[in-house]
Amino acid sequence: MTAIRPYEVVVLVPMCYLTVHTAHRALRNRAVPGSEPSRLLAGLVALFTLSIAVGVPAVRRVIDSVTGVQSITNLLSQLLGMAAITCLIGFVRQTSAAADAAPGRRRRHWLPLPAVAVAMSAAFFLAARPDGEQYLLTTGHSVAVIAYWAVYLGYVFWGVTAVGVMCLRYRRQAPPGPLRTSLSLMGAGSATALVYVLHRCAYLALRDSGIPLLADSVVVPTTQALLTGSLLLSCAGIAWPGLVKGRRARADRRRLRRLEPLWRMLGDAVPQVVLPLPAPLRTEPELVLYRYVIEISDAILALDPFRSTAAETAAREQLSAHGFTGPRLAAATEAVVLRCAVARASLTQPATPPTRDPEPSSEGIGASGDPLEWLELLAATHRHPLVRSISTALAGDPQPAQGAGAESSGPDFPDSPPYRP
């Protein structure tokens, strides 16, 4: 049989994607201090993927034919799986409280692997090796085969138990969020793998007893289901923090695109508030968004001497007449005042100092109390045609003189740097 089985497709497709993604991330961050978890993540996903891929019947036949060693792919697949479990132990330790341990202590989980690999290889070459799915089972009463399975299942039992215990321990310490969810998923994957080990031990010990549940027709799909569930749960736990971070990054990029026109207008008026940002940090949407919020707020404060209470009163009356109410009215009024202040700043004509605190009022911030939401609302109303026409009528809007580029949403982040070089 050389067809790819359904469970292998279910496992291989997401794991191949994860392998490419994590390898690219590890290579990109290889020079960054503290990037060892990324390397471990790439290693364990790649090892798991190779372990499953080697077991595909079509691949197995080719490798056995090329090497001339019957069933050598079974040994390779299991050795790769054990190495992946060892990487998983290191990954959990690196992403949890154990990351502060001494380097030697962090890597001591690798010590048993070479000895186990040598023992399994020796047992493999001493045992009879019938080809096919029943590898080393039809001769399961020989000493070499018993030693082989004892070493393999013992190592897997130790590895998944260690991962499960660490996930349970560190989950209690982790705050609610992606890390706790990740540890829960990896712990569930370890528990499923532990069930697989116990199921395999029961099968090896009792397969000649005639128990229906241990018949080959039942054991094969059960084994496939346990392996698939364990791998998918573990991969979901490994990928969960990255998925959450990616979702947050996409939300931050959308916010950046909404804030950029306002940030550019205020940055052109008060360039001293825009500080240089190193190129490597420009790829972090959360950091750039944080800088946007600070620099917009600083620019608003810097434009304080150019604010006009008369323009504010007139803008509020006109916007109210056009149906603006609540926070939207407060944001639109502030946008008009800022446009007028920018126009006066370009002409160096300070207005009468304002009679109110330049911080947004509680009406403007709204019930959520989130200054970022207020700035998003301010950026949205800043582009409103009515706001532009009112500010042009009151003080002369500088935007038409600066070209259409100031009103565009700007280049998609982070394809081009949002900060001036």
For the biggest sheet, the summary is: none
Radius of gyration: 31 Å
User: What's the shape?
Assistant: elongated
Number of strands: 0
Q: For the residues shown, what is the average pLDDT?
A: 75
Low-pLDDT runs: 351-368, 397-421
Strand and helix order = HHHHHHHHHHHHHHHH
Q: How many separate helices?
A: 16
Distance between the termini: 61 Å
Quaternary state, please? single chain
Helix percentage: 55-70%
Task: Note the beta-strand portion.
Answer: under 5%
- Structural class of the helices, strands and pairings? mainly alpha
Structure description:
The chain is built from 16 helices and no strands. With 421 residues, the protein is an all-alpha fold.
Please give the structural blueprint.
Blueprint: H1 6-28, H2 36-54, H3 57-67, H4 72-94, H5 103-106, H6 112-126, H7 143-173, H8 178-206, H9 216-269, H10 285-302, H11 309-321, H12 326-346, H13 362-365, H14 371-382, H15 385-395, H16 399-402
Helix pairs in contact: 1-2, 1-9, 2-4, 4-6, 4-7, 6-7, 7-8, 8-9, 9-10, 9-14, 11-12, 11-15, 12-14, 12-15
Brief write-up:
The chain has 421 residues and is mainly alpha-helical. The chain has 16 helices and no strands.
Keywords:
0% strand, 421 residues, 16 helices, mainly alpha
